Amino acid sequence: MKDKDTRRSKGVAFILFLDKDSAQNCTRAINNKQLFGRVIKASIAIDNGRAAEFIRRRNYFDKSKCYEC
């Protein structure tokens, strides 16, 4: 994903966690930290109705839980 004005990569990533505590701990640990001179913004994804579709496209072993950072 790139910024439409600068055409520079926004550096977006989505991470799947197996449990809610790990997702929350990661979010707290890395939010607002710097990496290579850029500030990391971490947050828990909000359900937008596409989560089930997202999980079906990939072969996850445990589909009962999905926590993303």
TrEMBL record:
GO terms for molecular function: RNA binding. GO terms for cellular component: U12-type spliceosomal complex. It comes from the Eukaryota. SUPFAM superfamilies: RNA-binding domain, RBD. InterPro entries: Nucleotide-bd_a/b_plait_sf (IPR012677), RBD_domain_sf (IPR035979), RRM_dom (IPR000504), ZCRB1 (IPR044598). Keywords: RNA-binding. Pfam families: RRM_1 (PF00076). The keyword RNA-binding applies. Residues 1-47 form the RRM domain. GO terms for biological process: mRNA splicing, via spliceosome. This is ZCRB1. It comes from Cervus elaphus hippelaphus.
